[in-house]
């Protein structure tokens, strides 16, 4: 059943069709409306549909996506950072990475996050709210429209603010909407979902019949150290987390990616490399080593031993590479752009 006053971007084409037929419009109009929605158009701009339908959409539904309110582009590598506003005034950040093989958009699944990772800028104020499927899809639609019909987004990484598996149903619906041939048609093989390691949800995800890549933010293969930087490690051990990855790889036939933010004195020693190699033994996986992007005022800092650590992993038979960092010249660490906008807003509010 579709809600009486739905957010249009939350709906699949069959759901939109059912809702529009319920309002008395012919089926084929839903296809036209859906095409406009995927192009980022609002009801008033859908100029091949009758005025009565445009009015009915404006009165009985809302779009439920995002609006771009600021764009910054790196002169160095073409990376773009976006600031989006949601219909309720909340603010989100997005990053568009441009590679030779296509455009990758990093999308958010929640406003804020309740996972509390020590190094992460998204979690400072806790979880504000979950995003709806349409608000996640809306980020892709808005950036596609901004790219102006040129090469649009081909790859998605769910690595913006929020924990995707903590907003499970909406994230799953988003993946299905984004990959569906009726809509944007982004191949699931080009979608990566990153989680801090919600083990029961990883088990559930393995059974969904999706072809997406699972990325797990491990950051340490030693329980005690992982607990110091990631509260989720108090709930699930490294062994439980890696076992869930093994089950995922087995169920989907897909290699799992482990993310490892290399942090000075925390996870960059020989002992850390040993633990990681032991944990991942026999698992089809790859490790993305990322120098920590240190937040202002944090006691954690980037490791200076990235190359040495990669060599230690190589010597231990672990497949690993340094993840390229793009857009470093524009507003530094993730979350900074949003933080600045929120500060500006607070300063505008009179006493
Ligand atoms: N909640 C999900 C996805 C969001 S974060 C998760 O935890 O995976 C996306 C990735 O960026 C994660 O691997 C996260 O650990 C990493 N990350 C967050 N803050 C970072 C920082 N300051 N430096 C380097 N990586 C960071």
Query: What is the count of β-strands?
Result: 12
Mean pLDDT: 93
Radius of gyration: 21 Å
The spatial strand order of the largest sheet comes to 1-2-3-4-7-8-9-10-11-12
CATH homologous superfamily (4th level) name of the largest domain = Aldolase class I
DSSP helical segment count: 11
**What is CATH's topology name of the largest domain?**
TIM Barrel
- Name the structural class: alpha/beta
The SSE order reads: HHHEEEEEEHEHEHEHHEHEHEH
Structural shape = globular
In total, the number of domains comes to: 2
Q: Helix content range of the residues, please?
A: 25-40%
Strand residue percentage: 15-25%
CATH domain class of the largest domain: Alpha Beta
Identify low-pLDDT runs: none
Distinct small molecules: S-adenosyl-L-homocysteine
What would CATH call the architecture of the largest domain? Alpha-Beta Barrel
Report on the biggest sheet. Answer: 10 strands, mixed
Measured distance between first and last alpha carbons: 46 Å
């Amino acid at each position: 059943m579709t809600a009486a006053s739905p957010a249009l971007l939350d709906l699949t084409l069959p759901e939109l069709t059912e809702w529009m037929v319920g309002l008395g419009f012919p089926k084929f109009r839903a296809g036209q409306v859906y095409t406009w929605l995927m192009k980022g158009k609002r009801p008033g701009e859908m100029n091949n549909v009758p005025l009565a339908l445009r009015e009915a959409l404006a009165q009985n539904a809302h779009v439920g996506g995002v609006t771009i309110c600021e764009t910054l582009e790196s002169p160095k590598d073409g990376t773009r950072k976006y600031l989006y506003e949601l219909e309720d005034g909340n603010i989100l950040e997005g990053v568009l990475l441009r590679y030779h093989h296509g455009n990758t958009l990093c999308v958010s699944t929640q406003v804020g996050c309740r996972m509390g990772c020590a190094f992460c800028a998204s979690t400072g104020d806790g979880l504000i709210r979950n995003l709806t499927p349409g608000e996640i899809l809306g980020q892709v639609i808005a950036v596609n429209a901004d790219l102006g019909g040129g090469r649009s987004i081909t790859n998605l990484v769910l690595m913006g603010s929020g924990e995707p598996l903590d907003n499970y149903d909406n994230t799953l619906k988003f993946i299905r909407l984004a990959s569906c041939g009726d809509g944007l048609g982004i191949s699931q093989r080009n979608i990566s979902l990153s989680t801090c390691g919600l083990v029961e949800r990883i088990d559930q995800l393995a059974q969904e019949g999706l072809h997406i890549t699972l990325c797990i933010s491990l950051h340490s293969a030693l329980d005690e150290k992982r607990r110091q930087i990631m509260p989720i490690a108090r709930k699930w051990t490294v062994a439980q987390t890696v076992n869930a990855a093994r089950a995922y790889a087995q169920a989907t036939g897909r290699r799992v990616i482990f993310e490892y933010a290399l942090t000075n004195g925390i996870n960059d020693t020989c002992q850390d490399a040993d633990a990681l190699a032991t944990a991942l033994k026999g698992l089809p996986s790859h490790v993305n080593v990322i120098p920590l992007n240190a937040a202002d005022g944090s006691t954690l800092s980037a490791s200076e031993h990235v190359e040495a650590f990669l060599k230690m992993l190589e010597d231990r038979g672990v497949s690993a590479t340094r993840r390229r960092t793009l857009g470093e010249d524009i507003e530094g660490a993730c979350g900074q752009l949003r933080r600045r906008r929120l500060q500006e807003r607070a300063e505008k509010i009179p006493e």
